[in-house]
Design goal:
alpha+beta; three-stranded antiparallel beta sheet; 1 helix; 20% strand
Length: 66
């Protein structure tokens, strides 16, 4: 389950994340500006965010020098 918090009214809701939904709105006030808190397991492997993060990781490997 994912969580989001409405930036307008502060409502926090647990829900099933749908990567293909165009917008998620607050069920309390209807505001569309919400913050998501997802575990990596809840995001589909082909999600554009995961794809972008994977490409970024490949192009900029972590600094291992100490």
């Amino acid at each position: 389950m994912a969580r989001f918090r409405c930036r307008a009214c502060g409502e926090e809701v647990t829900f099933v994340y749908d990567v293909y939904a165009r917008r998620h709105v607050c069920p309390r006030c209807g505001f569309v500006d919400v913050q998501f808190a997802l575990s990596i397991e809840e995001v589909a492997a082909d999600d554009p965010l995961i794809t972008a993060l994977a490409k970024l990781a490949e192009s900029d490997p972590p600094d291992t020098e100490t």
